[in-house]
TrEMBL record:
Residues covered by the Deoxynucleoside kinase domain: 13-208
Name of the featured protein: Deoxyguanosine kinase
Keyword entries, A-Z: Kinase, Transferase
One Pfam family hit: dNK
CDD domains, sorted: dNK
Gene3D superfamilies the record matches: P-loop containing nucleotide triphosphate hydrolases (3.40.50.300)
Domain of life of the organism encoding this protein: Bacteria
GO molecular function annotations of the record: kinase activity
Keyword Transferase annotated: yes
Length: 217
């Protein structure tokens, strides 16, 4: 954003919400507007993802472990290469999403085993200074997933997506209660399309700018 100068203090901003809601698109815009280093999660390189959408019970543990290990490595690198050097970062995910997805997909002994590994790996990782939460109805989310037409998502179960949206809402309410020190800014994407409507993007950036300035001051 014009006139938005760099500060010495580095912060981590994460953008979260259900699949297909626009996290990566918004993160890229924030990176450009506020001169932030961009971190994009590794998704479609996951060799288990296509099989996961076809048979969640069979491939959930392999899928979740791949995501956890890759996100752990990414955040380690971001911490060492950018945050520790005074460079602020915007990420199109927060690592807490691993717990949201795993509690929906893992069953039996796999869930406590996975959560134990998660706790160990994330203990010393950098935490977000600001969480941007994108939410929308099932109809909106499924429409946007359909528009981007990614082959791996074509077999996605609608009921899985519906449950995931509900899981996100429940998790974020708990997160705000237990982490009052971390501001959460929520945008309802049923009413916003910052990808195709410049005025919607301007609204989002204008709302976020004071919070980002305050955190970096």
């Amino acid at each position: 954003m014009k006139g938005f100068e760099a500060y010495m203090k580095s912060i981590l901003i994460t953008v979260e919400g259900p699949i297909g809601i626009g996290k990566t698109s918004l993160s890229r815009e924030l990176s450009r507007a506020f001169e932030l280093q961009l971190l994009e999660e590794i998704v479609y390189e996951n060799p288990f993802l296509g099989k996961f959408y076809e048979n969640i019970a069979e491939w959930s543990f392999q899928t979740e472990m791949f995501f956890l290990c890759n996100r752990y490595k990414q955040l380690q690198d971001i911490h060492n290469d950018y945050l520790n050097q005074g460079i602020s970062v915007v990420s199109d995910y927060n690592i807490f999403k691993n717990t949201i997805f795993s509690k929906r997909t893992l069953t039996g002994e796999n869930l406590p085993k996975y959560l134990k590994i998660y706790d160990i790996l994330t203990e010393d990782l950098p935490q977000a200074n600001l969480v941007i939460y994108l939410t929308a109805s099932l109809d909106t989310v499924m429409k946007r997933i359909g528009l981007r037409d990614r082959e791996v998502e074509r077999s996605m179960d609608v009921s899985y997506m519906e449950n995931l949206i509900a899981d996100y809402d429940e998790f974020m309410k708990a997160f705000e209660k237990h982490h009052p020190e971390v501001p959460v800014i929520k945008f309802d994407c049923d009413d916003l399309d910052f990808v195709h409507r410049p005025e919607d993007l301007r609204y989002v950036l204008d709302r976020l700018e004071p919070q980002i300035r305050a955190l970096k001051a």
